[in-house]
Amino acid sequence: MAATAESVAQVEEIRKYKHGWETDIEMETAPKGLSEDTIRFISAKKEEPDWMLGWRLKAYRHWLTMEEPTWAMVDYPTIDFQDIYYYAAPKTTEGPKSLDEVDPELLRTYEKLGIPLKEQEVLAGVQGAPKVAVDAVFDSVSVATTFKKELESHGVIFCPISEALKEHPELVRKYLGTVVPYTDNFYATLNSAVFSDGSFVYIPPGVRCPMELSTYFRMNAKESGQFERTLVIADEGSYVSYLEGCTAPMRDENQLHAAVVELITMDDAEIKYSTVQNWYPGDENGKGGIYNFVTKRGACRGDNSKIRWTQVETGSAITWKYPSCILQGDNSVGDFYSVAIANNAQQADTGTKMIHLGKGTRSRIISKGISAGKAQNTYRGLVRMGPKALNGRNFTQCDSLLIGDRCGAHTIPYIESKNRTAKVEHEATTSRISEDQMFYCRQRGIGEEDAVALIVNGFCKEVLQELPMEFAVEAQKLVGISLEGSVG
Amino acid sequence: MIEIKNLHAAVDGMPILKGLDLTIASGEVHAIMGPNGAGKSTLSYVLSGREGYQVTDGTVAFKGQNLLELEPEQRAAAGLFLAFQYPVEIPGVTNMTFLKHALNSVRIQRGAAELDAMEFLKLVRAKTKELGMSDDMLKRAVNIGFSGGEKKRNEILQMAVLEPTFAVLDETDSGLDIDALKIVAEGVNALRCRERSMLVITHYQRLLDYIVPDHVHVLAAGRIVTSGDKELALHLEEEGYAAFAERAAA
């Protein structure tokens, strides 16, 4: 393994002369392409324990035997996995020189979201903009430190997963990969092999996390982009609400994103996981947009435990995402509230899986899909009642809204029941924004685009109101912005 | 206020309005009566700029402006309001949100400042009080689960909030029992003032007992065939539309 030795030597070299890797990111790259050497490099770089490297390698070897799935209703050119940087891709000099060179559409969006100029530069990756994580720009470094102290006083652990591997290796080892095993699926397996960073959260027994945990406030957010790995554990009787994402579309050099999120709740514990995803969707034809292949899954291990996924998906050229719940504990509850908006050439194939294993388990799925332009929006969901899911209950409401006559909405529910006491309900509607509604709004003085935003926000209300307050307000604005240009 | 001259309009190529003339001065209330298919609703949609209603000839001047070249929302901002015969439901959008959006959109177009949440709440509460409505209506989704009477009262509330200078009431009496009719008419009367003109479109004389018009016109086969004062409505009720239609054809 000469190359690995060389890589490690290189790492040592860097450590000697540089004060940490934030200062000179150029030197910090692994070569392009994926091999065992790349994985060893990443692991060495992060000073991971041996078992972690072993796990990554097992995942990689398994990944080599897998094929990219093609069942989703998405269409994209073949991805060359050897043409990707798996560790800290070098910043190209291709970044815009000033905001004048940035896609004016992107700037308009920033403006509408009320983002100050300095922050716009960072988000758009303008050359010479401060090389700091977005959270620092949002002036939350000091805030983050203060929060960290308060969290510590409650025994809550909230840190980058790379840090958790150093500080709390036993916790990470105990839970990592127990919900999404490294063999799970093509993208999750890839993530297991090469994950860059992500968040780790542990809430001790009986603790109600005193604040909403947000990736905004996480240090080092910048480096965790492409293959993010998140692990959230709520121990017995604890509660946490976690917010992921940002309403501001962030320019990202990595086209492929394959994140993994694992949630675990023990007896009587509850996790609320909210996402607002607004990555660059590409231009009108989807060119340059992000491919987002995410595996999110929660395990309600304990009795009476709860997991709620709330997502607002408006960005990315391709979204492939099914936040799911495995309801193992008796009387455990899984919820999925989703808004997926696809405009122009965007393609979204998203939904959930509710796997009922324990007695008296309940789940609720509320999915709102909006398609505009020539976008394709697919809801794909599985509800499975296992043989022991005595009196299991599921309710699914799946609504699609179409804007214009070139888009598509598809609903693909899978229902399997192996228990005759279980009840599964599925309701679905497909509608259009009616000409009556548009005219009514316009007669009251509301312009076409505002009218669409208003009507769509009404359509999504059930989901949006599940978001934490400050997120909900931003998400409402975002709904309008995502659908601009969809009428007229 | 509004001057309609020789207005011709078609729907799907079929002529409906065939040379309609009507002038309404500031502060006046005019009633248009007529049989089914005379073009009453078409007139209200043409004035408010609904898609699918093609003006083939004639002019409409509104406060000196060419109304026909404005988008529907611009007409609203200019001060035109249409109380719908069938108010539209918008699921998930509360009346409060809808009204605030509408008012602020109109204010922006008129060059006025937007109202913030508190200012708006104050204003809308004052309006509901004036009209003797309960605030509960504000929290419900626009027209969802509203009774016929509630829907029409909601239209009047919107009118009160948007303060138009010219309001078209399209068969506001349809689907109302006599009690609801009285309440709605009271609301309309409360909004009558010297700066506001109204065009009341109706089938029945009944409504005009409560909203007393300055002028009554009979619309038949796309034209105004007779005009008069409120007595005309009474004659019309006795005689029936058929006689008028005959006279129009003659």
Q: How would you characterize this protein structure?
A:
Chain A has one domain (27-482). With 488 residues, chain A is an alpha/beta fold. Chain A has helices at 2-17, 36-45, 50-64, 104-113, 117-124, 134-137, 141-153, 161-167, 169-175, 186-194, 435-443, 448-459, 461-464, 469-482; strands at residues 157-160, 199-203, 213-214, 229-234, 239-245, 256-257, 260-265, 270-277, 291-300, 306-313, 318-321, 324-327, 333-342, 347-356, 362-371, 376-385, 393-402, 408-417, 423-432. Chain B is of the alpha/beta class and 250 residues long. In chain B, strand 4 (53-62) and strand 5 (65-66) form a beta hairpin. The mean pLDDT of chain B is 92.
Q: Counting H and I runs of at least 4 residues, what is the number of helices of chain A?
A: 14
Overall mean pLDDT of chain A stands at 83
Number of DSSP strand runs of chain A: 19
Q: Work out the helicity level of chain A.
A: 25-40%
In the sheet with the most strands of chain B, the strands line up as 6-9-10-3-11-12
- Total count of domains of chain A: 1
SSE order of chain B, one letter for each helix or strand? EEEHEEHEEHHHEHEHEHEEHH
Measure the end-to-end span of chain A. 61 Å
- Total number of helices of chain B: 10
